[in-house]
Amino acid sequence: MRYIVRFESVDGAFVLPLPMRRAEQEEGHTARTALERPPLMDYGIDMQGGARVVADIAEIRHRAVLLSPESDDELDALRALLRRIGRGRLWVKLSDGTERWAWARATDLGSYQVASAQPIETGITVGFVRLSDWFAATESELVASITASPTDIVVTTSGLIPTRHVTVEIEATAPDGVVNPTLENRSSVTSFTAQVASTAIGQTVMVDVLAARARRWDGQEVTLIPGGNQAELWRLEPGTQTVRITGVTSGILRLRWRDAYP
Questions:
Q1: At 146, is the secondary structure helix, strand, or coil?
Q2: CA Rg, the chain, in Å?
Q3: Beta strands across the sheet bearing 190-194
Q4: Which pTM was predicted?
Q5: Residue 165, SS3?
Q6: Strand pairing partners for 205?
């Protein structure tokens, strides 16, 4: 069975292994709804229509026991790290030993309980809000040489839900090999165009899909234009899909992503 094992800062400089003596964990995860209840109408109206379920913020509780005389120091250290890390990565270990992580923030900074019947034990509670899906511990990568526009490439992800944790890098292999490249996922029906044109071999444009930002080879920001009628920039679907790239006649596409899980 899966269980939360540690919480760490974004850069990995601060790591909090969660105490595991007699540990108990629970996670509550609900869907976000948009319901209206008009007068004189049975039930109500689902404002989301036929759209997919929208996951709400998940709440996680971790309870464990600290033993005296070390419990005071351990509790101080735990509380200090939770406050110092802020928004960080919460890691979960699965039954097969693999790990995944999610963005999270502490909400309970180490509440504790003591009882006269068990004077050497301090029961502690740590709480988190999970702010993202679970992501694979390592990135997946696809590298493709592009010699014609348009070019279709097949991408296969191993996750169970769509992932937006994607970076796209396009490198020109000819001076004019990249001109306003467009990436279209024909499965998710999402696309974007980066307004940039190469003038020399080796020039690159890097797109951070999650942040909806792009930069070119000299550090300047690049304007991204999303496709019509879409509420997000781009995403990869679980399983196999076709990605079409236009505006690149001589270049290398590097697609990196983290598989996502509910």
A1: strand
A2: 23
A3: 151-157, 239-248, 178-185, 190-194, 224-226
A4: 0.89
A5: coil
A6: 170, 216
